[in-house]
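Appendix C reproduces, verbatim, an entry submitted by the partner laboratory led by Prof. M.T., so that reviewers can inspect both the input and the predicted structure.
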Amino acid sequence: MRKTIILNAGWSFTGPDGNAAAVDLPHTWNSVDGQDGGNDYWRGTCVYEKTFPRPDFAPDQRVYLEFQGVNASARVELNGSEVGAHDGGYSTFRWDVTDLLQAENRLTVHVDNSRNDRVYPQKADFTFYGGIYRDVSLILVNQCHFDLDDYGGPGLKVTSTVNGSNGQVRVETFHHAENAAVAVRLLDGDGRAVAEGTGTDCTLSISKVRLWDGVKDPYLYTCEAELTVDGSVVDRISTRFGVRTFSVDPQKGFFLNGRPYPLHGVSRHQDWKGIGNALTRKHHDADMAMIREVGANTIRLAHYQHDQYFYDLCDQYGMVVWAEIPYISEHMPNGRDNTLSQAKELVIQNYNHPSIVVWGVSNEITISTKDKADMLDNHRALNDLYHELDPSRLTTLACYAMCGPFNRSAHITDVVSWNLYLGWYVPGLFLNDLWMDFFHLRYPNRALGYSEYGCEAMPNLHSSKPRRGDHTEEYQCVYNEYMLNCFAKHPYLWATHLWNMFDFAADARDQGGEPGMNHKGIVTFDRKIKKDSFYIYKAWWSDQPFVHICGRRYADRPEAVTTVKVYSNQPHVALYANGRLIEEKSGGKVFTFRVPLAGQVELKAVSGDCADSCVLRHVDTPNPAYKLQGKSSNSANWV
């Protein structure tokens, strides 16, 4: 039977300085310079080496070498012999290395994240961390085994549909064994068999099926497949799956299992401060916990294939997912083959995840594309490829703000979304309403979404009179309050995805007083501070009772009477100052109070069993630390 040996420990890394150092995986060489700005972080080729003994395996077994993520290109040698090369920094790839193994083995991986014109991404508003930043393993399998050579896929494909109260589950398995038999079992969430069948392509029925029903009930089944040769089981694989239906109505939005299910959520980049992309499971768990806390029910996993573990978490917690490839910002004619191969890997490796409902073709591709005809042709080819590989899901793309509603690229995929920062990069929050109304009026049968919207904020910057471009927490609150109300007035949107859940590294940026960063997150890069805007989303989206006093980091205030906001999903909030009731208000989500300031004032907001407190101080002059000392964000300067 299969056995996996993890090879993460004890690597020798030779970096840009030519010196070797001992490292464990996951690892990136850009964990520091990729996060400090200036567009000067080191991109090139570094070398990872590891020695390991020949694993103990039988004569009728094969050994595969698997990499789950190497950014961006890898050339692999084993004992001086070429194993293979892979272009694409975010997907799994593997090779059969059985015949190259010796008693002692030296594995050498040349990792390259240098600039070129053929491997995506090359131009985008995020850092392209170099390194082996996900697991490396040896997989020992019988020579007769389920397919391990199909674009890093699992060799098992599960497609579910609903027929009345029953679930119809088609199970396709792939292998190269002669005279072999395949047995399939479907298990419920408690491990009990609910259906059985045989054959490489069989359809099974689950009576009284329990649906995968979003965040309220993300019920998962398990599909097991066994490969038998001459009466002996030689290989066994499994995958979790869910049974659900979904659709998009241009007039009514997203539907899950036949009922309206408005998609409101966030986008996520996978990097952390000081760690880059070299995340462990605890980092993924922490991200998911905060996304769940804010009350999101959808995640756009931008702008590349994410770790399989995080897709598993999305399945487990009911997040509806937009998955995409890093075809972004600029069409490269020499990169067409790479977009197709990355799309194949994305779909084949992630087909069984019930959380995924749309495949993303591209993001902001019209920013600097010169050969528009070739770009459009590539979009059509990708859209057709997605439908060929997976007729069960929809395709989408994210259009650049300057990509007008009549642009041909915006009308290729099944649904479309726009990255719009009206009220941030350009003045006028009201323009969001006008833009949505115009597009919906002009194209009433075209499903529209917001794939990105957002506003930068630094938790150390504050103002009693916030304005666009000041990077204060207070303006981010103003912006997001408006956008949430705006979306509520346009219920036909198929999905809205806030940009971004977390601050992330963008090496070419120099804004907000901290170069190398995009600060549009509602949680800081190190995940230690939930900005005030986090709580306006929680007030709109979450059922977990809470109250939150905004402006706690704006402690020093020169005004004699200050405005204090409280965010809550409760119907009533009372605010106390030094133990004295200021006022009790009824309403929803945003509660605004006027508070006299004299000396130090301890505020406490109360609603039922929920309470929150902070301290404000009256000062004679404004605290200069609260004012932006660098560049503002009146333009996206990474472009």
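The domain at 156-241 is CATH 2.60.40.10 (Immunoglobulin-like). Additional entries are available on request from the coordinating office.
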